[in-house]
Amino acid sequence: xAKFLSARGVYVDLVDISQGHVEGGDSTVLVRTRNQYLxxxxxxxxxxxxxxxxxxxxxxxxxxxxxxxxxxxxxxxxEEAVEKVDFKPPWLLATVWRxxxxxxxxxxxxxxxxxxxxxxxxxxxxxASVAMPKPRGVRKxxxxxxxxxxxxxxxxxxxxxxxxxxxGLYDDGxxxxxxxxxxxxxxxxxxLLADAALEEA
Length: 201
Fold this sequence. Notes:
Blueprint: H1 2-7, E1 13-16, E2 25-32, H2 36-43, E3 46-49, H3 53-60, H4 62-69, E4 74-76, E5 91-95, E6 103-105, H5 108-120, E7 129-133, E8 138-144, H6 149-158, E9 162-170, E10 173-180, H7 187-200
Parallel strand pairs: 1-2, 2-3
Antiparallel strand pairs: 4-7, 5-6, 5-7, 8-9, 9-10
Helix pairs in contact: 2-3
């Protein structure tokens, strides 16, 4: 991936976190990992990261962007509070911090069961949940800086250079339901990212 970007005039070091030891430095890095929290930690070790550490954290905390870009939502941490959600199921029941635990639930009882399970997990970030109305459909957009539309606006607000933005379709239009700040990069996506970086240079 780094070779492909370099061929397009974007010079970065690819950080391979699987090696277990990473030293920071003065270079520009492209962090690749499935563990986005670890990615944010390692990105902070370098002078410049394509997606900076603070921007990754902004994306991972859904309450940073949901109020402006997301659908109506309700936050809670106790299964009894599920009954106070002011809109009817079905819901997209996510964690406030992006953990890959999002599920669709069709009843209050089902939501209570999910929240109860999350409260028994050892990860403290799993204990805060957010319910959103289930969208009629979801469209995933690979967005890079400089793009127009809601996906580009979200990137600018969060400070990201690229991300995969999931847009849910609702009666009032498309609303953001997820932001992946370290998405998979195939050749086509790397080309878009390289072109965007060249335009900014």
